[in-house]
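By convention, each integer encodes one residue's backbone shape. The lines below illustrate.
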Amino acid sequence: MKTHKFNYNWNLKDTIFTKDKGKVFSCFACGGGSTMGYKLAGFDVIGHNDIDKKMIEVYKENHKPKFSFHESITTFAKRKDLPKELYELEILDGSPPCSSFSMAGNREKDWGKEKVFREGQELQVLDTLFFDFIDLAKELQPKVVVAENVKGLLMGEARQYVMKIYKAFDEAGYYCQHFLLNASKMGVPQRRERVFFICLRKDLANQFLHFADMFTQLPKLELNFNENKIKYKDFKVNDGSELPMSELVEKYWTLKNKHHNRMSDVLKDLGMKEQRFGDNYVLNDKVPMTLTSGGGYYREDEPTTISISDLKLIGSFPLDYNFINNSYNNAKYIIGMSVPPIMTAQIASNIYEQWISKL
């Protein structure tokens, strides 16, 4: 059987991070999912930015960053006192908040509205934060910019934003491509689809081109992944952290069949009002579904949630990651909000091999 390029079952304490591929700074860093991916690929992640104080604490505990900025990206992008090293980056990374574009959210109804984050930070218009991030890229001028977002950004009216994103990157001095990638094909035991905008600075892009082609051809990044899928039964762990189902949830669990992936499917077949769309059944013979910060994840063959170890493995988080508050819901929140490290590691290694190593 083909092995995976990166092992989703890993520990921080046992991993040697070479830090020889270049410097990275991460925005909207949350618990550092993408940070761990860059580290696995050999990059040196020198710092991060986040608006959530609790996420800053968790990030510091696990990553010991050289630079840490607790403030909104809007404020951060306007700074003129940033460390010199931030102007010497190979990669600027970011995952702008995406609920305005998610198919599970209100989408168009929420566009342009101010929102308060989970911990009660300052009001922000979520669908403009992407452009604040691009403003930061324009200021710092890293060699490459990587921005991750939800699949819904490519659907319906949201595609107008994609055009604006391309225009903003162009004005910031970058050639841009975007990719819709599925984590389950990249060595992650999760069916998580995300769009990645990957941009190369124009002056560097021209180094790849022959003079005769430089106005008609761009240095395209090729991202093709087809690693073996990882089913839940391949790694299921009982570690004692599983939570019992509530009486109502267990009632619907007893009525499900093998065709039901979500509790809402059970309710639909019972002729009841569809609801509880975030409650999912993790099937032994399937790759687990997208892990979100607020969903419920229940085993198909026993009346409990999946374990914290399962959550870590599904998110390709290290098993010794310290959430500080190591409760089940906190672990699920942080992993659900983060880019799976292995997903980022796959992308980062390709960026290095195809672009950065040749500059």
Observations:
- The domain at 23-229+339-358 is CATH 3.40.50.150 (Rossmann fold).
- The first strand starts at residue 23 and ends at 27.
- The chain has eleven helices and eleven strands.
